[in-house]
Write a structure and sequence with these properties.
Length: 272
């Protein structure tokens, strides 16, 4: 799932076919990126309805953008941003979900590449945005990586757990984004703040991540449904849990933005 900057440089020098995918804003890519990198905006996409149909549209949006990049068959996709944040994990999650293909995250991102002596160059060439515009529906290869709204509502605590990846102030309802109709959290959710799984721009060790998850009350024996505000931060936690050995993990992509818009759905406010 992860590759260090020195390992990436060696594999490229050895002639391995890799597709470098810069998931930062287009302007940042155009300013300075890994030489030959493509640009893909995976951040701004928001699913309008967390249903099988909505998720088929989401998969179609990704596949449509992916095809625009013209990545050669057999190339290993490597997603990166400035440092590990919420974009490169979302890129990898999209790849898994829609196409069931393997890929990597450059641990530490552009900063780690530069620190390791890697050259940077202005981004040119192909750029795409994950968007519904012109994209047909597509049946995702790994639908289990996206929990629907109904699955989230009906989650059985004996077999599944809900993980809130947002800030503690979002969790307790003392802060709400202006675009959200209500403040609070999905009942039954436990908090694991997404920034706690990274350190100095890189993912923490598998052992540290497993300890963090256990301390927050999670166990790899249950399915973990992860959510945040609009589905991006949750992907960082999903990758962290997979690094820690969790197998059955999913993102509720509509997350709080969608949940809060349904006034019939319950919420909780306040501390634990």
């Amino acid at each position: 799932m992860l590759i260090s900057a020195p390992d990436l440089a060696k594999r490229m020098a050895d002639g391995e076919n890799v597709a470098l995918i810069d998931v930062r804003e287009r302007e940042a890519w155009q300013t300075a990126s890994l030489p030959g990198a493509l640009n893909l905006n995976v951040y701004d996409y928001f699913v309008s309805d967390s249903t099988p149909k909505g998720y088929a549209a989401m998969a179609g949006a990704f596949v449509h953008a992916w095809q625009q990049l013209g990545i050669a068959n057999g190339a290993t996709p490597v997603f990166f941003e400035q440092t590990v944040g919420m974009r490169s994990p979302r890129g990898l999650w999209f790849l898994w979900f829609a196409l069931g293909a393997e890929g990597l995250i450059l641990d530490g991102g552009v900063d780690a590449w530069a620190d390791a002596g890697g050259k940077l160059a202005p981004g040119t060439g192909r750029s795409a945005i994950v968007s519904d515009a012109g994209a047909p529906e597509y049946q995702p290869a790994m639908p289990q990586l996206a929990a629907t709204r109904v699955e989230t509502i009906d989650a059985d605590p004996t077999t599944a757990m809900l993980l809130d990846a947002r800030r503690p102030t979002e969790y307790d309802g003392s802060f709400v984004h202006e675009c959200c109709a209500r403040a609070g959290r999905i009942p039954g959710s436990k908090l694991l703040f997404w920034e706690d799984v990274v350190e100095n721009g890189r993912f923490k060790s598998a052992e540290a991540l497993a300890h963090l998850a256990a301390k927050a009350g999670f166990t790899p024996s249950k399915r973990v449904i992860i959510w945040c505000h609009r589905g991006a931060r949750a992907a960082t936690i999903l990758v962290a849990l997979k690094l820690a050995g969790y197998q059955d993990v999913a993102v509720y992509v509509g997350s709080w933005h969608e949940w809060a818009s349904h006034s019939e759905l319950p919420l909780l406010r306040g501390a634990y």
